[in-house]
Design brief:
Length: 415
């Protein structure tokens, strides 16, 4: 069956679907990853097809509007700015999403494209499912991940979750009605369409483990947790010679990287990281990423893109932004973490790491200082319990098969 996996966003919003797509392809399906052009090499490495979408997410984050995200000091403010950016861009994706869907038999849709993709599936009479990386549906058990970590009580959490979903509907408020008219569908607003999906119990699989976040008891039946979809990496990825030599030349270093997140002051963040590592008497591997972090000296090495699965197991700890994908990679490697959440759901995953006992707690970017980061680094590397808990959890995660439930559901659609 021809399966299109549709997603938009940063690298962390794309990489897990290479593992999901590779698993579906190995089972005999013809899989195409539909996402931004800059991620075409990820699909090629996974041995799956690719259909390019316009918009460069890195360029958007580096734009004036993207830099405005850093001027918002609250989760609500950042969410409002991101919704405004997405609303202005989403219409540019429609033509290519339609073209990819017309060459497919089933659509698997990320949370970022779920509403738009579902409309396309409805108009083309194609079966579809959600494949989400975050718990988007409202629940009384925790506050919406994009809004922070403070519980508002069961009623408050559900109301806040519904409010976030209504805000996200605003992204598609202009594009969805135009698309429905183009496909000959009855005119329906984005919010009404979401309510219809919920009433129909539209299936959504979530790409994280119940060992990390248990399925909320008040979710509707069609919302399921599948397990992690690990990014597809080469069976034996080769590290750059400089990195191999650095690892062999001393004790295990600490990895520092903020992935696809950007920071308002690259120089200040880099200096803080280097000073904290040296104050804690630790060596560092600093990944430049989209933030442009860098470090110099015999005890530091700056690297570009490297598969997390290849480098994380060699680390004493990982300092990361706590995006869903990087959080999963550190858990898979069995390495403790110091999360530095920057925006959106990162504070949520940081709190989960602390609750699991594999992190001493987050150091939010707005509070990042040499003293605070040094203390966290000393704690996470000096106390062996963090590493022991991380390794025990990793062993259990390796026993799970996140692709299997999705594969079974796709096979049922083709039966």
């Amino acid at each position: 069956m021809r399966v299109a996996i549709m997603t938009a966003g940063s690298r962390g919003d794309v990489a897990p679907y290479t593992g999901l797509g590779h698993g579906l392809a190995r089972a005999g399906h013809d899989v195409t990853l539909v996402t931004h052009e800059r991620f075409a090499p990820l699909a090629a490495a996974a041995g799956i097809g690719f259909h390019a979408l316009p918009v460069d997410p890195r360029a958007e984050l580096e734009s004036t509007a993207g830099q405005g995200l850093h001027r918002s000091s609250t989760g609500a403010g950042k969410l409002a700015r991101m919704i405004s950016m997405a609303r202005a861009l989403v219409g540019q994706l429609t033509d290519d999403l339609l073209a990819a869907a017309r060459a497919s038999d089933v659509l698997l849709l990320s949370g970022s494209l779920g509403p738009l993709g579902h409309t396309i599936a409805e108009g083309l009479e194609l079966p579809s499912m959600g494949v989400y990386l975050q718990p988007i549906a409202a629940t009384g058990e925790f506050a919406p991940p994009v809004g922070g970590t403070r519980s508002l009580g069961r009623v408050g959490n559900r109301l806040a979750g519904r409010a976030v979903n209504a805000a996200v509907d605003h992204v598609f408020a202009a594009t969805a009605p135009e698309l429905r008219a183009r496909l000959g569908l009855p005119r329906t607003g984005a919010r009404a369409a979401r309510h219809a999906r919920e009433r129909q119990d539209w299936p959504v699989f979530h790409g994280f483990s119940e060992l990390v976040l248990q399925r909320p008891r008040d979710w509707r039946p069609g919302l399921r947790i599948a397990g992690y979809w690990w990014p597809h990496d080469p069976p034996q990825p080769q590290l750059p010679p400089r990195l191999r030599d650095f690892l062999a030349d001393g004790p295990s270093p600490v990895f520092v990287g903020f992935g696809s997140s950007t920071v308002p002051d690259t120089e200040r963040a880099s200096e803080t990281v280097v000073r904290a590592l040296r104050a804690a008497r630790l060596r560092g591997v600093v990944q430049s990423g989209w933030s442009g972090l860098h470090a110099e000296g015999e005890d530091m090495l700056t690297v570009d893109e490297i598969p997390h699965s290849a480098v994380f197991p060699a680390m004493a700890a990982v300092v990361h932004h706590a995006g869903a994908g990087t959080t999963a990679a550190a858990l898979r490697a069995g390495v403790p973490a110091v999360p530095v959440p920057i925006q959106f759901d990162q504070a949520f995953w940081s709190a989960r790491l602390a609750a699991l006992g594999v992190s001493p707690g987050p150091v939010p970017l707005r509070r990042l200082s040499t003293e605070v980061l040094t203390a966290a680094l000393r704690q996470v590397t000096a106390d062996p319990d963090y590493g022991q808990r991380a390794r025990a959890l990793a062993a259990r995660l390796h026993q799970e098969d996140g692709v299997g439930p999705v594969l079974a559901a796709v096979d049922r659609l083709g039966a």
